[in-house]
Amino acid sequence: MTKILGISAFYHDSAASIIEDGKILAAAQEERFTRKKHDSSYPFNAVEFVLKFTKNKLSEIDSIVFFEKPFLKFERLLETYVAFAPKGFGSFCKAMPIWLREKLFQKKMLIDQLKKHDPNFKNSEKIFFSDHHLSHAASAFFPSPFEEAIVLTADGVGEWATTTVALGKKNKLEIKKEIHFPHSLGLLYSAFTYYTGFKVNSGEYKLMGLAPYGNPRFVKDIYKLIDVKDDGTFRLDQSYFNYSTGLTMTNKKFSKLFGKNPRNPKSEDITQFHMDIAASIQKVTEEIMIKLAISIRNEFKVENLCLAGGVALNCVANGKILKKKIFKNIWIQPAAGDAGGALGAALALWYIENNNTRIVNKDDSMQGAFLGPEFSQSQIENELKDLGANFEILNEDDLIFKTAKDISEGNAVGWFQGRMEFGPRALGGRSILGDPRSKSMQKNLNLKVKYRESFRPFAPSILKDDLSKWFDMNSDSPYMLIVGNVKAEKCTDMTEEQKQLFGIEKLNVARSAIPAVTHIDYSSRVQTVNEQTNYKYFNLIAKFKEITGCPILVNTSFNVRGEPIVNSPKDAFNCFMGTELDRLVIGNCYLTKEKQAKKLLKDYKERFELD
Amino acid sequence: MEFIKEFWKFLKVRKKYWLFPIIIVLAIFGGLIVLTQGSAVAPFIYTIF
Predict the structure, then answer these.
(1) What pairing do the DSSP bridges indicate for beta strands A392-393 and A589-592?
(2) pLDDT attached to residue A207
(3) Is A143 exposed, middle or buried (0-12, 13-18, 19+ CB in 10 A)?
(4) A181 or B29, which is more confident?
(5) For A183, left (φ over 0), alpha (ψ -120 to 50), or beta?
């Protein structure tokens, strides 16, 4: 049995994973343990978890792979400074101390940190370095159900590459084409994230969520920033950007083009202008992704597509690629961001470097992304007792019935079951659930439970077999990475008067039979739930359907704004007591808010830095 | 020492010998910046990491 440990760290979203003879056993992000969102530090806790879960000591691991090559990154950094000199002196002064003190010596840093897990670990020859985009591509191709596929990866930047096209066949995966820094679709999207006043690297979701409220009237202007060829390849006009040499994403020329300075989130509200900007950049991103998809489809004549990299988390663009039927099948790595690099790096070593045979798993080798920690019933009970929680223990049938009934009566429920998800999405392991038929659920969940902006949409979890009855989709979307439209017969047309309402006010208008998960443009980021990967969650939705006739639940991650998704029963209880969640269901333990001691209520909202 | 060996190997593989004098100058320059600064903690800037 060959065991490989994959690590991604020191940029953002540190993570660790472990595979055994190519089988994915465990993976987790460091942020879930340290409770620091997008934690980029060495993933000590995540490594500890994957080792403990697989009952291994570090000295028993055959190889350790880091997800990218620090020297290549340094090369890119230096060449960029040389290319832009003397511009960029300020950025250089900020970057050099970090690189010369730490980042250049990542191998030594890694060895020092690894020794903390197991003092017997000595063999530094076991450590390998993958390529950032190869790690992404491997994380998308090797777990996919395809024998052969074309793999498209796109993100901000890795070493040099920002976009790659790779061809995967059996156990081979070869990068065929690359677009290099500073020309980056991810950085273009992030530039607009910055410009609209959201945090780069985490606010991209918000920009995507804001887009449907706007009118894409700036598309023409955006095409002044980016020259897109017919095959989807592109170049960014650097005179509008500042990220190569400066400390911001955009510059004055950029602001002049759109007529406003970047929004200051502390003093300025989101206006129709920002919504129009969001709609425009979303449209351009979709157009580029579609062009890229069409050109690689025609060039390589392969009918399967795999996607990874931060841009692959743009589920609206993914939905459009799917809808256009450019490829017969699409598979997207659920941990498409840098965390997934930990998994991809390990898989790349096993298949590409070690040349091991790959047996394609048609089911789901990512196991529903449930690759994180789990807690036994007795562990949950002990932890809750220690916290002073008041709970009852129910058998599974009662638990499912009571929870489904609670949801149908308008309660917001914290749902904590089985192993934690790997990747940014909660898929029914660490979720907050609600009734999608409720007109007030979206607003209430956003403002009273999640403490986040009221414009942000929620996603539906639907029983797999009911998908095409409710949404304009036929293919499975188990990882909530594809957006589809609510079926026309389930939608309600807005009156002329309602159409005139200002963006966010439209949210108060019930636009379908499931308003809580219907975005302003009738779209939904759908998760299909099947019995094999998520038995308990499947049963809960089935029971909800039995009670209400609706096979759908609102599913949002179990956290508040700025907080990583809960990992342990303690995290879940803290979140429960710090928000207006009505019920908490952990394992077979059932908690109601009214029965908890008042002194246990927490001021939770201010605990996490806003993202 | 091992680091220098590895870095030299890296330059050989990448055939970027021309970077070497630049790296020396930058390293000295960067070293000076390091010495004159108290901490290596800098604000998060997207592309320099």
Answers:
(1) antiparallel
(2) 95
(3) buried
(4) A181
(5) beta
* CA gap A396, A400 in Å, rounded: 6
User: B1 burial class (0-12, 13-18, 19+ CB within 10 angstroms)?
Assistant: exposed
**Cβ pair A98:B33 closer than 8 A:** no
Q: Is residue A360 part of a domain?
A: yes
Measured between beta carbons, the chain B residues lying within 8 angstroms of A102 are 40
In chain B, residues with a C-beta closer than 8 Å to the C-beta of A201 are 44, 46
Tell me how far apart the alpha carbons of residues A382 and A379 are, in angstroms, rounded to a whole number.
Answer: 5
* Confidence label for B43 from pLDDT (cuts 50, 70 and 90): very low
Enclosing H/E stretch for A23: strand A23-29
Of A601, A473, A567, the residue nearest A527 (C-alpha): A473
A44 and A72 Cβ atoms separated by less than 8 Å: no
Domain that holds residue A15: 3-67+69-129+338-365
Does A522 share its domain with A553?
yes
The answer to whether residue A557 is domain-embedded is yes
Domain with residue A352: its CATH number is 3.30.420.40
pLDDT of A85 reads: 86
Axis crossing angle, helix A396-408 with helix A535-548, rounded to the nearest 10: 50
Q: Which of A181, A191, A154, A163 is nearest to A312 (CA)?
A: A154
Q: What is the model's pLDDT at position A12?
A: 85
Calculate ∠ Cα B34-B43-A251, nearest 5°.
110
Interchain CB distance below 8 Å, B49 and A11: yes
Instruction: Calculate Rg over the CA atoms of chain A.
Output: 24
Closest CA to A246 of B32, B45, B43: B45
Q: Does A142 fall in a domain?
A: no
Please tell me the total count of domains within chain A. Answer: 3
What are the tokens at A125?
Answer: 């020859």
Q: Would you call A10 and B30 a contact, using CB atoms and an 8 Å cutoff?
A: no
Q: Indicate yes or no: CB of A97 within 8 angstroms of CB of B30.
A: yes
> A436 with A584, same domain?
yes
The token duo for A490 is 């389930």
Task: Please tell me whether residue A8 adopts helix, strand or coil conformation.
Answer: strand
CATH number at residue A402: 3.90.870.20
Span A534-569, pLDDT tens digits: 999 999 999 999 999 999 999 999 999 889 999 999
User: H-type helices in chain B, by residue range?
Assistant: 2-14, 19-36
Same domain, yes or no: A276 and A222: yes
CA nearest A207: which of A185, A191, A229? A191
Across the interface, of A72, A91, A102, the residue whose CB is closest to B40 is A102
Q: Is the dihedral of CA A198, A201, A205, A208 positive or negative?
A: positive
In a domain, A154, yes or no: no
| B30:A96 CB<8 A | yes
* ipTM value greater than 0.85: no
- Which residues in A have their CB inside 8 Å of a CB on B? 10-12, 40, 71-73, 75, 77-82, 91-105, 107-108, 156-157, 181-182, 187, 190, 200-201, 243-244, 247, 249
